[in-house]
Specification:
By secondary structure, the chain is α/β, with parallel strands linked by helices. The protein contains eight helices and seven strands, in the order E-H-E-H-E-H-E-H-E-H-E-H-H-H-E. The structure holds NADPH dihydro-nicotinamide-adenine-dinucleotide phosphate (NDP). The site of NADPH dihydro-nicotinamide-adenine-dinucleotide phosphate (NDP) has 30 residues, from helix 1, helix 4 and helix 6.
């Protein structure tokens, strides 16, 4: 369907070399976009690019450390100079340190905030002039169930994931007149490296999540291919400032 066609578009997915980011990158590539896989681990990124190409997609890797402002700005500039434009930015790179709030050091606070929240601010601001000049664009932030709920081990992570929703709403207001839509995706519990660490830490987590999720299963990275295409395509042109759970019903279970 033309409404979902991204064949003249260029997309960056931070953390696009694995997990949810790679699931989103796959959707974007299948819809025709040229995808920049932006991660720290060059070998992992090269493998992700091969995977996207194997499915007929167009992709390149550009190395980035999203905690570094200069590196974020260089990612945007290198994308535009190599691929000629930037239409879609997915701010997906993220991390977590699961601890009670009182156990956090200030440097741990800063590392999670920098990775999950400041990076999205810097990358979006660097992307803005290119999207404005092109007549529009799409920015997708990644929140979490911790954008909605609290948990004893997630004070800092929840601060970033609540913050990114509010930041996205403000950006949506600021940039609507430039035809730039800014939306947030809130994943439920998804089987990735991030949550494999959590399941190793909390042995009952796997069963508790399955029991609480109406869909009766954990999410998979490919569950994010469709929402990535929708929020990047003309199909969502009148949708901005939203925070959409992709969670198998976890957030609506009473
Ligand atoms: P993964 O650990 O599988 O992937 C995280 C990605 O972020 C990796 O590709 C990693 O790339 C990248 N990344 C981390 N730090 C940096 C950095 N400093 N610079 C550049 N890239 C970085 O996690 P998920 O796929 O699970 O998570 C993706 C997003 O989804 C995150 O924002 C996370 O908070 C969110 N999320 C995940 C949920 C889940 O259940 N899995 C639930 C809710 C939200 P590299 O390896 O190259 O460093």
């Amino acid at each position: 369907m033309n409404m979902f066609d991204l064949s003249d578009k260029v997309a960056i997915v931070t953390g696009g070399n694995g997990g949810i980011g790679l699931g989103m990158a796959e959707g974007l590539a299948k819809a025709g976009a040229q995808v920049v896989v932006a991660g720290r681990n060059a070998a992992k990124s090269a493998q992700a690019v091969e995977q996207l190409k194997a499915h007929g997609g167009r992709a390149i890797a550009i190395e980035v450390d999203v905690t570094d402002e200069a590196s974020c700005k260089k990612l945007i500039e290198d994308t535009v100079s190599r691929l000629g434009r930037l239409d879609i930015l997915v701010n997906n790179a993220g991390t977590n340190i699961r601890k009670q709030p009182q156990e956090y050091s200030a440097s741990e606070w800063h590392s999670v905030i920098d990775t999950n929240l400041t990076s999205a601010f810097i990358c979006s601001n660097a992307a803005y002039p290119h999207m404005k000049q092109a007549g529009g664009g799409k920015i997708i932030h990644i929140g979490s169930m911790m954008s909605i709920f609290g948990a004893s081990f997630s004070a800092v992570y929840a601060a970033t994931k609540g913050g990114i929703v509010q930041m996205g709403r403000a950006m949506a207001c600021a940039w609507a007149s430039d035809n730039i839509q800014v939306n947030c995706v809130l994943p439920g519990w998804i089987d990735t490296e991030l949550t494999q660490r959590a399941r190793a830490q909390y042995s009952d987590l796997e069963g508790r999540v399955t029991a609480r999720t109406p869909a009766g299963r954990w999410g998979l990275p490919n569950d994010f291919s469709g929402i990535a295409v929708f929020l990047s395509s003309p199909a969502s042109d009148f949708l901005t400032g939203t925070a959409i759970p992709v969670d198998g019903g976890y957030s609506v279970q009473g």
